């Protein structure tokens, strides 16, 4: 109570907007994209098909999927002047601000197609983003390791093209490992949308001012960068390595978490909505063993993660607070096994989340009723008072 009004906890959790895109039941641990259960999409679909589903609302038939794939493959190149942006970034720059800068800059190269109420503009901007973000991400990686950039090879699929531009070399042919591509495709599906999370709400809020799609997505990338949101997958790896380097005593680490030692959280655990096991984490955990065995990942860290989960799920502190593994708990181990450095994990999250962000922006532009309005506040400051001259302060 502030003397003005009693803050009702429910006030903080009022619904932000309506949407038809993604359904979550946090207590039951249910996640559906346009009504399709995530477990079925993970098993039967592909990332490009899920991207179509989220953006256009229905699973594509073969003609629609072929056309969508072909349109994307024709826009994977960056403008040569945009490619030169990478010369200016410091080599040790974190790739997330590089990504958000390059995406924001797209609106300077495509000034003729930014109007959010012109369907042709929205369509071409959608395709350009889906096609160019993997190229931008691969170039950010190449810049960080001082290697030459590879132009896209449009005979490859979206994920294969990204892997080739990231890990390939101009001097020799690069064969994309199909297991690697399938694993990354699955992780992108699992990250593709998640209702009104921090970054998606940011995309909707920025777009609600009629800012163009590139500007809105750039804002979403910046929101995702936060360690409590998209940065958690990197933070989980750093946490596991710290536990290992401190002697691998999981019980001791859990004790420090429960004592709320400064900055000691069980990263990859807990969720604003899931008060049950995150269904995405369950799918990833199931495949982590196969993927790590196949790709030769660091099993010691996977074993540590499993011990940590076992320990936490048997401890009342976590059970009472309904803290379960979320999507980030196991993903970092897989990304590491794929060969990505830790600071690129959040970039991979952004690549996966892109179709969800685009779908929400388009939904809001097409239906103002789904807009996040201007948030109001409960004022808890001073009541009215008169100005005090300097002599009286
Ligand atoms: C993502 O919204 C989305 O959908 C996000 C996402 C998506 O797909 O977009 O799912 C992706 O962001 C997943 C979350 C990734 N972040 C992390 O793993 C970081 C660690 N998690 C926490 O920061 C936290 O769990 C949140 C922010 C994710 C959720 O916090 P809640 O549920 O709002 O809980 P809270 O902050 O109000 O805390 C409730 C209690 C507190 O203890 P008490 O004060 O009651 O004693 O739970 C404790 C917290 O201290 N707690 C944790 C904890 N998370 C909450 N204690 C230890 N470790 C944790 N991770």
From TrEMBL:
It holds the Pfam family Citrate_synt. It comes from the Bacteria. The active site is at 271, 328. Keywords: Acyltransferase, Transferase, Tricarboxylic acid cycle. The lineage of its organism: Bacteria, Bacillati, Actinomycetota, Actinomycetes, Pseudonocardiales. It catalyses: oxaloacetate + acetyl-CoA + H2O = citrate + CoA + H(+). Gene3D superfamilies: 2.20.28.60, Citrate Synthase, domain 1, Cytochrome P450-Terp, domain 2. This is Citrate synthase. CDD domains: EcCS_like. InterPro entries: Citrate_synth-like_lrg_a-sub, Citrate_synth-like_sm_a-sub, Citrate_synthase, Citrate_synthase_AS, Citrate_synthase_bac-typ, Citrate_synthase_sf, Citrate_synthase_typ-I. GO terms for molecular function: citrate synthase activity.
């Amino acid at each position: 109570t502030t003397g003005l009004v009693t803050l009702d906890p429910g006030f903080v959790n009022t619904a932000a907007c309506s949407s038809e895109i993604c359904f979550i039941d946090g207590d039951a641990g249910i996640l559906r994209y346009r009504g399709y259960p995530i477990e079925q999409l993970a098993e039967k679909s592909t990332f490009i098909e899920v991207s179509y589903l989220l953006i256009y609302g229905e699973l594509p038939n073969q003609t629609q999927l072929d056309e969508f794939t072909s349109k994307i493959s024709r826009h994977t190149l960056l403008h040569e002047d945009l490619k030169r942006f990478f010369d200016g970034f410091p080599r040790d720059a974190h790739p997330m601000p590089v990504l958000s800068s390059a995406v924001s800059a797209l609106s300077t190269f495509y000034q003729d197609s930014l109007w959010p109420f012109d369907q042709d503009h929205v369509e071409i901007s959608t395709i350009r983003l889906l096609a160019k973000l993997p190229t931008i991400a691969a170039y950010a990686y190449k810049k960080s390791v001082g290697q030459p950039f590879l132009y896209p090879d449009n005979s490859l699929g979206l994920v294969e093209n990204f892997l080739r531009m990231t890990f390939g070399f101009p001097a020799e042919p690069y064969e994309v490992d199909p297991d690697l591509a399938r694993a990354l495709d699955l992780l992108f599906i699992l990250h593709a949308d998640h209702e009104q999370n921090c970054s998606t709400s940011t995309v909707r809020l920025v777009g609600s001012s009629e800012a163009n799609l590139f500007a809105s997505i750039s804002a979403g990338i910046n929101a995702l960068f936060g360690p409590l949101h998209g940065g958690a997958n990197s933070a989980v790896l750093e946490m596991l390595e710290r536990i290992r380097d401190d002697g691998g005593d999981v019980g001791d680490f859990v004790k420090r978490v429960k004592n709320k030692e400064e900055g000691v959280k069980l990263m990859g655990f807990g969720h604003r909505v899931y008060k049950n096991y995150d269904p995405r984490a369950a799918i990833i955990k199931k495949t982590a063993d196969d993927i790590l065995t196949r790709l030769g990942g660091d099993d010691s860290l996977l074993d540590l993660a499993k011990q940590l989960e076992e320990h936490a799920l048997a401890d009342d502190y976590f059970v009472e607070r309904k803290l379960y593994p979320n999507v980030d708990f196991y993903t970092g181990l897989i990304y590491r096994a794929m060969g990505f450095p830790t600071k690129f994990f959040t970039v991979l999250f952004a690549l996966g989340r892109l179709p969800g962000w685009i779908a929400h922006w388009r939904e809001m532009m097409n239906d103002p009723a789904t807009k996040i309005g201007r948030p109001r506040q409960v004022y808890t400051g001073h009541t009215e008072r008169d100005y005090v001259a300097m002599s009286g302060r």
